[in-house]
Amino acid sequence: MKIVFLFKYFLPLIVMLSCASRTTYRDPTAASGARGWGPYEVKRTAHRMVDEMLSFLTSREEPILIAFKPIRNRTTEHIDTEMLAGHIRASLIEKKIYFVQMNYRGEIIQEIALGQSGLVDETAVPIGHLKSPNYFLEGVITDTVNYEKNRSIQYLVVTLNLTRVRSGVMVWTKNQEFLKSTRNQKVGW
Questions:
Q1: What pLDDT does residue 25 have?
Q2: What is the DSSP code (8-state) at residue 27?
Q3: pLDDT tens-digit series, residues 47-68
Q4: End-to-end Cα, the chain, rounded Å
Q5: Structural domain includes residue 28
Q6: How many domains does the chain have?
């Protein structure tokens, strides 16, 4: 009778309490490696790539305007590539390297046309002030995963390429590599 009582009331209670989720916050500047793509990989990649790219770009005698193409994820896991792109953009803008927002071109042209129609007062956007990028920045994240006993070994490579718009020539490229070894759990909560 006591055993039935324990299984009927206390076992479900223990299971519910052990499955309850709990959220804690950590310091993102002290990020350590995690099973998936996380703050460590984003920050390390952005920091290294921005330093290397800035070294290349500031050696040029021309104004620098970049159009950021999407970073493609060709890995076996879900990676928010916009997070990495956001870190790179923010770091470069802090260093006075600016971006041309190609995805707003259509809306900007419509706004200019509206201003030229005479329907807008003196705040109308004038013709002839749009900028063209002189570089396209694009990237790709790839990986390969191998399994050894109870571990997965993931080799991740983040590649960024800078292409001169005028010539179509790729003028700069860098890789950031990660080799992650993760113990596979047999059973997890």
A1: 45
A2: -
A3: 899 999 999 998 888 889 999 9
A4: 30
A5: no
A6: 1
